[in-house]
């Protein structure tokens, strides 16, 4: 379980608080979207979880342990695929294991296994330039899985893709989530994406962030796109848009 | 291919123009015709290639070797520690405003008409562009990629070997393409200061004899060598840096 306990954060050298006593929890195996307008501090949550920034008050804990003493407790997937162009697909996927010092035979085996699961095995020896945007994101996802932790942080991974590819990848991601049984925190500013993917949506509407509004998505898995047309879901969508818009106008 | 044809065509036109002009002036000590230059090259090819060419190339090889080691080391040091960058970079830049060939005679005072003197000239002419290009290459590393590596728990050494070094590689090849041909030219010019031989030295001797065709002949060899080296570097680059367009 992941827990933010009364977390305070201000970027070094700035006066405006980003987080002010924020608390929330995420249970193991959940798929949670963090929904908020751009510039609202969503990505800051991930930077804190990643250890790229340090909190000034409160604590972030995983299974009751402060993350400051932990290693390899989360895997981060950035918005851009950030594949290294000088590495093949396979070498890119193996990068986190290489850094962690996993031996070569195991690296190769795990990577092959992973590429099969994300349906990219025939591209193992290709370079990122040979792949489409959607495929590159899938490689990036496989790389994230290879970082080995149970908590996946996905930071608007599909926002730069065209809408058809995005829809395909959303469906693909759900299948992967069921297959891999990991906890997913998914940042997005797209209301429909949040509803389609997640069990719960944590909505950020204030700055500094003092709390998140937790909304359950009343849909079963596996999901199909026509479920989004149910009146109840349409209403939820309108409410969310309304909440976000208020924030933007404020 | 079509692009090359334009270049070749225009080159042929210029040579033809030169030939016509030379025939019109009709004074080979002022403007020898391309044909006369070619004949001079043929006549002296043996002595140019066996006696003078090795002397020039020895300095090119030693000089570029030192410049590469020096330039890359400096770039790495500046990349490792910002204090070194702040201390060294401005001095490097200022040093480039001093015309190397004008202060070269001082090296003659120190080391005489030796290989050392000419090697120093070549090193001074070339190492700067290597340092700056490779350093820029390190700096071109994307912050996001560095952070991604950090989330994997990468050590500074892993950051350098797996990210910064490959990022800088295309820049390193740019440095090579600029500096190595320049080393060939620099080596020949340094021979003007005084040398036991070499293409530049031979060319200068021909000038004393008012042999303009003989003066130009070794320059053709210099150009050809610079061009060949450049092509070789491009070939290696194409094999090694396959991702250039994306960086």
Question: Would you mind describing this structure in some detail?
Answer:
The complex is a heterodimer of chains A (250) and B (247). In chain A, helix 2 (89-100) crosses helix 3 (104-117) and helix 2 runs parallel beside helix 4 (133-146). Chain A has a domain at 2-73 and 149-249: P-loop containing nucleotide triphosphate hydrolases (Rossmann fold, 3-Layer(aba) Sandwich). In chain A, strands 6-7-8-3-9-10 form a six-stranded mixed beta sheet, with helices on both faces. Chain A has 250 residues and is α/β, with parallel strands linked by helices. Chain A is built from seven helices and ten strands. In chain A, strand 7, helix 5 (163-180) and strand 8 form a beta-alpha-beta unit. Chain B has 247 residues and is mainly alpha-helical. Chain B has a single domain (32-246), classed as MetI-like fold (Orthogonal Bundle), CATH 1.10.3720. Chain B is built from nine helices and no strands. In chain B, helix 2 (34-80) crosses helix 8 (199-208) and helix 2 packs across helix 9. The mean pLDDT of chain B is 91. Chain A binds chain B through residues 50-52, 71-72, 74-76, 78, 80, 82, 84-86, 95-96, 98-100, 127-129, 147, and chain B through 142, 144-145, 147-154, 158, 162-163, 166, 169, 241-243, 245-247.
Protein topology:
The complex is a heterodimer of chains A (250) and B (247).
Chain A: E1 2-10, E2 17-26, E3 31-36, H1 42-50, E4 57-62, E5 65-66, E6 74-77, H2 89-100, H3 104-117, H4 133-146, E7 151-155, H5 163-180, E8 183-188, H6 191-197, E9 200-204, E10 213-216, H7 231-249
Parallel strand pairs in A: 3-8, 3-9, 6-7, 7-8
Antiparallel strand pairs in A: 1-2, 1-4, 4-5, 9-10
Helix pairs in contact in A: 2-3, 2-4, 3-4
Chain B: H1 2-25, H2 34-80, H3 82-95, H4 100-111, H5 115-139, H6 143-151, H7 156-190, H8 199-208, H9 212-240
Helix pairs in contact in B: 2-3, 2-5, 2-7, 2-8, 2-9, 4-5, 5-7, 7-9, 8-9
